[in-house]
Amino acid sequence: MFSFFNAPLFATFILGMFWKRMTPHAGWAGLVLGTVSAVAVFGLSESGVLDLPGQGASFVGAGVAFVVDIVVSVVVSVATRPKPEAELAGLVYSLTPRASRQAATSGEDAGWYRRPGVLGGADPGAKGCCRSGCGVGGVGGAGGVD
């Protein structure tokens, strides 16, 4: 199931987020054909045409789905008219103003969930998760907690 849906979805998400030329039609075509290609690899593996033991069919299917999604999305994007850049601000990384990507430090928009360091557990103020000295930082600077 991972190769059927997650791999092409990830390819579409990454391409759409970082390439301003990506179009909605390209995203849809890439998703559909990426999923179909993963299903085809699974079918070929199950019928014995491809000898992919264990998780091989899923691994190869995910790779094929990712590549097919990217190729189809690029081809369809080039063949279709892109959205105006004004409509993409806030959706595409390169067109989003740097100031709007910064978390507020005060006010209503200063929630802990807006700080990637806290969400990732990489709080520089944390001393560790326990007394064992493993060095794993705690969330929100709660180091030294037993």
In short:
The chain is an all-alpha fold and 146 residues long. Helix content is 50%, strand content 0%.
Question: Keywords for this structure?
Answer:
146 residues, 50% helix
- Count of distinct structural domains: 2
Question: What is the number of helical segments per DSSP (H or I, 4+ residues)?
Answer: 5
Give the CA-based shape.
flat
Range of helix content: 40-55%
Termini separation (Å)? 39 Å
User: Unreliable runs, pLDDT <50, ≥5 residues?
Assistant: 137-146
Average pLDDT, to the nearest integer? 78
Rg over C-alpha atoms, rounded to the nearest angstrom? 21 Å
* Strand segment count: 0
Given the helix and strand composition, which structural class is it? mainly alpha
Q: What's the story with the biggest beta sheet?
A: none
Run of helices and strands: HHHHH
Tell me what portion of residues adopts beta-strand conformation: under 5%
